[in-house]
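**Sequence with structure:**
===
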Amino acid sequence: MFEIQVESMFSAAHHLLNYDGKCENQHGHNWKVVVSVRGSHLDKANILVDFKVLKKELNAVLDYLDHKDINELEEFKGTSPSSEMIAKFIFEKMSEKFENMYFAAVYETPASCAKYYGNKEV
């Protein structure tokens, strides 16, 4: 089994719903995002997925989130846009392009991240 991953960043604001603490107030993060794909079959160049292709698609998803109030985006209306839910959103968007997505990780800080693996075995 092979696995590759790329990372990128975006900045955005959000606030958590149904949360008792400071994070219920609007605040922002410079999120680091890591996505990974897995698979056992390489192409004729012995590549699972080209890093630049994976990074381009990730950046397209992150451009949608960048410098936005995530609570105002249609996909997050009425829900608490936690790092977990942002990771799920990124995973699902990336899965539209890569059927062998393994996980999406969203780091709020260098030491705190949420990962989403999806509902299928890769």
Observations:
- The chain is about 25% helix and 35% strand.
- The first strand starts at residue 2 and ends at 14.
